[in-house]
Structure formats: structure tokens, C-alpha cells
Write a structure and sequence with these properties.
Transcription Regulator spoIIAA, 5-stranded mixed β-sheet, alpha/beta, 4 helices
Length: 128
């Protein structure tokens, strides 16, 4: 499978999805189901990192916008996507415009290190 999910921290507050170079929407949604099951094992909210650095979107990305917007659960906090390049960023911005408030939990940065830094900064702001 070209999509994997694991805890990114020992406290189980961050899930990390790693997307391989080629993957399908079915693989993504199957792995998301695993991630959602993982989230339900903890009593707190969970942030999500998506490693998109070595990946590209499969066909029909535009057609998947609504389903992707419905992925977050009430227990999901912020979803930070790292990587994907300028084409992905253009589609991501279109996704944010079309999905309105359903897309508010998502943000994009250029790589996984920046995704982790963005998440750390957001968490620090909430602790103030």
C-alpha cells in the first residue's frame, strides 16, 4: 500500500500520513479509516500531518474535494499537509475556496519539517 499512517509522537496527539509516489483514492480512504480508528482510541483531539513530499495526486482530484472535506472527525484538530509543489498548492487553494468552512481545518506548507513547525507554533498559541 502506498499510503501509511502512524502516530508521530508517543503521546498519540499527532497522526502522520505518508503518501508514496503513486497511490489511489481508494488506498487513501482505506488508510484514513485506519487513522480514524486510531484517533478513537484516545480521549483528546488529534492533529494530523500529511507527508506529501514524494507524492503526486492521482487522477480525478477535483472530484474528490467533497469527500476529502468530510474526512475530519470532531476529534480531529488541524490537518497540515507538507509538500506537493505548486500544482498541488493551486488545487489546495481551489479546494479551500470551494469547501468554505469545511476546509478550515486544513493548511498547506512546502515540506514536512515546515508542517511540524506550523503545528508546533499553532499548539504554542493555544497554550497561551
Amino acid at each position: 500500500m502506498s499510503v501509511r499512517v502512524n502516530w508521530d509522537d508517543p503521546e498519540h496527539t499527532i497522526l502522520l500520513y505518508i503518501l508514496g509516489s503513486t497511490w489511489t483514492w481508494d488506498e487513501l480512504y482505506e488508510t484514513v479509516d485506519v487513522g480514524v480508528a486510531m484517533i478513537t482510541t484516545v480521549p483528546h483531539v488529534v492533529d494530523v500531518l500529511v507527508d506529501f513530499q514524494n507524492s503526486s495526486l492521482p487522477p480525478r482530484a477535483f472530484a474528490q474535494f467533497q469527500r476529502v472535506a468530510n474526512i475530519p472527525t470532531p476529534q480531529t484538530n488541524l490537518i497540515v499537509i507538507g509538500g506537493g509543489g505548486t500544482l498541488f498548492l493551486s488545487l489546495f487553494n481551489l479546494f479551500k475556496l470551494m469547501m468554505g468552512s469545511a476546509a478550515n481545518k486544513y493548511c498547506w506548507v512546502s515540506d514536512l519539517d515546515k508542517a511540524r513547525a506550523t503545528l508546533a507554533k499553532q499548539r504554542a498559541l493555544l497554550e497561551i
